[in-house]
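Here is one chain, start to finish.
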Amino acid sequence: MPDNDPSPTPEKQKDNGFVPGDKYIARWTNYFRLLTDRMSYEGTLQWKKDRDIRNEKADCATCEKQRDYLLTYSPVIRFMRQNINKLGGDLNSDNIRCRRCDALQGGGFEKSYGIILCANNMRNQGHVEDTIAHEMVHAYDQLRFDVQLDTNLRHAACSEIRASTLSGECRWLREFWTKGQYKFTQQFQECDDVQAAKVVNEVWDSCFPDTRPFDEVYR
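Its structure:
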């Protein structure tokens, strides 16, 4: 006996305003739609990813040039690097890597990998300097205090407070509030606001004044 129930019709994908393609007309159509607020949030993310893939080689080259300059001439980067060396670590052009990142972040640190700089998200050399300094504080904390950034939320919160303070960044809200969630490390992305805020409050008084290896907040 034939089935009288009609097969479900796939829903038409909602237009997010982004026009795929690498041709000149597609690029300018997307740029115009972005400027005139005719592109949704999802479309904007697609546009950014498309742009970042197209500019990956140039972005990484610029990032590497700025990184190498800062490793040689930036007082805060040189100071942090010296203190990391004293603890048996070494951060240099070989393990401070410029890469294209899909995530909306400036960079990250992992002990066995080193530092990643999200070349496509770097605004200028000052932003590169802030990001390297920030991640170097995480590296220092892991070597000096054996903090467990991946498994201990209190450790991650304390190190993030110190890194944001000592690097000279004004990115407290960017680091701690993203889409209504705290994001200390990838492992804690699902931590709810109440729990995260409680941990930050618990460690704030002891972590915020801790300026090691600086004598005071440098920047």
